[in-house]
Amino acid sequence: MDSKKKRPVSEYNETLKMKGFNAFQIESDSNSTRTYSRKDFYKICLTTGKSVIHYADRSFDMNGTILFFGNPHIPYSWETVSSTYVGYTCLFSEDFLNESERSESLQNSPFFKFGGTPVLDISLDQREFLNGIFRKMIEEQQSDYMYKDELIRNYINLIIHESLKMQPSENFNKHKNAASRIANVFLELLERQFPIESPDLPLKLRSAQEYADTLALHPNHLNRSLKQVTGKTTTTLINERVVSEAKAMLQHTDWNISDIAYALGFEYPTYFNNFFRKVTGTNPSGYRIENV
User: Fold this and answer.
1) ∠ CA 176-181-182, rounded to 5°
2) What letter does residue 211 receive in the DSSP assignment?
3) d(C-alpha 36, C-alpha 45), whole Å
């Protein structure tokens, strides 16, 4: 099988990958906020309407104009309550932001860091000012200006610095069922690790301890919550998802077994072979022959 045909990627996402940035307007009653699910990028949204934002282990009930900061390393979901929702969104990759010498300190801001507050209530005057910045970014990304990437990064920095002057919103409530909330956050974080697009970009999180550390939870607490909600341990859920990805890679790519093993976080192919056989009852080579 031609390796170039492994996984189709939409033209929109491919553009984001190549340029590292995209900005667009959310039109009245648009589905863009409701349906856009890719979260492997940073996101800043200026929106007006009613919504509930679930971010890590907290929920924000928002009504009016808000500014939201999404971090690709922190699980979140967005429930639109209003029948109409308007505003702007900009998306940018970590590599795009890292071109700026100031990016490291900005990523540690109260908006992007874990445990921070990613939502701001925005006044009418602030909304008009921020609308102008988003419009400039949208216009600039279509221009032929040689240094437009640097200019757009400056606009992003301006939004962040202006936001640092504002008081973060504390309008949030703990999820009624803590175990359910933790399970949802874990499962979303787990799913976000996939698909594996290249052997050179192996799985970042592989063990229960690594997931617990990322979610700032004790491994036992995470495990108890998952057992309560799903009936399965953290390790079982991780292994099931890894096997599912392994099957897809064996069927739909021409990568050799060693590349697949490395991409899925196994130090040696023999470890992967033993793991796969234990879970499925067959070895990876046998599975590929039977299913391709």
Assistant:
1) 135
2) H
3) 12
pTM of the model: 0.56
Long-range contacts of 244-250 (CB under 8 A, 24+ apart): 245/194, 245/195, 245/196, 246/272, 246/276, 246/284, 247/280, 247/287, 247/291, 248/195, 249/196, 250/284, 250/287, 250/288, 250/291, 250/292
From the candidate CATH numbers 3.40.50.300, 1.10.540.10, 3.40.30.10, 1.10.10.60, the one assigned to the domain spanning 178-291: 1.10.10.60
- Tens of pLDDT along 52-82? 887 765 678 888 999 999 877 676 777 778 7
- Supply the DSSP symbol for 3: G
- If DSSP codes are grouped into helix, strand and coil, which group holds residue 257? helix
In 3D, which of 276, 211, 271, 274 has the Cα closest to residue 246?
A: 276
Omega cis (within 30) before 269: no
How many whole angstroms separate alpha carbon 205 and alpha carbon 159?
Answer: 31
Q: Are residues 62 and 51 in contact, defined by beta-carbon separation less than 8 angstroms?
A: yes
Domains of the chain, residue spans: 3-174, 178-291
Q: Is residue 228 over pLDDT 50?
A: yes
Structure tokens at 250: 């064996």
Fold designation for 3-174: Jelly Rolls (2.60.120)
Q: What is the DSSP letter of 99?
A: T
Is the CA virtual torsion 162, 167, 170, 171 positive or negative?
negative
